[in-house]
Write a structure and sequence with these properties.
With 253 residues, this protein is of the alpha+beta class. It has 7 helices and 11 strands. The strands form 2 sheets. A 9-stranded antiparallel β-sheet has the order 1-7-6-5-4-8-9-10-11. A two-stranded antiparallel sheet has the order 2-3.
Length: 253
Amino acid sequence: MNDDQRGTPSAAQPGPGEASVPQGLVTAVVDLVNTGPVLLGAYTIAELTAVDAIVDFLEARPSDDELAEAVRSLAARELLLAGSSGEEVQVRGDLGIAVAFQQRARKVLDARTTGTAPGEPWRILLLPQPEKICLMVRIDALGVHQIGLYKLDEALRTLTEWLPRGPSADTDPSIDADALLTGSERSALVTVTEYTAVGSAETAGASTDLVLARNEGRLHVLSRDPSRRERLVAAPEGDRDGVRDRLADLLAA
């Protein structure tokens, strides 16, 4: 794929299935993000899959009919053009920027929550970049993916405000996680996954889970038992008690 929106030459020849990024595009966009959020539009999962703008293991692949319709929709909006060869396409505009930054990431934070209100996303993805900025994807109940680039600190603040909040509950090693989650007013599963990519194919590697649950006004933080991964236990307090700091540590690990 090739985003030639700016008409500049590519910085390097991409490998099979990789996006060719115009020289200077990443630097220019990073500079822009440092002045404020850069919103990149809203798309369906089929549209993102059609241009390889979503990490493979995060979503079920749409049907061939859905992908064909997505290609027609993108072409009609002039976001997708035929390239110079039969095997190449040009992804233009904001969607091309989303493709470029998605393919640079090698770690993703996937947060899913219950108890959301109408119009509120039920899932948020963060794909951190080396420059301390972040590609954020908000997914609503209709499957619409709102994409933007933010400073990492701002993205973490937005995510923390969306996740369950409240005064910290006392740590209880004997807590019944199932009962806690069943009775919670709002809960969330946060998974940070490292992954590798060969061409456009991503493969999940090591992952870490954090569970947040607000019950009776108190926030409980759970993690997986190292000796029994299927079991949730109260997360160790450590040096980081705040949710935002815990999320930052997960991304930095």
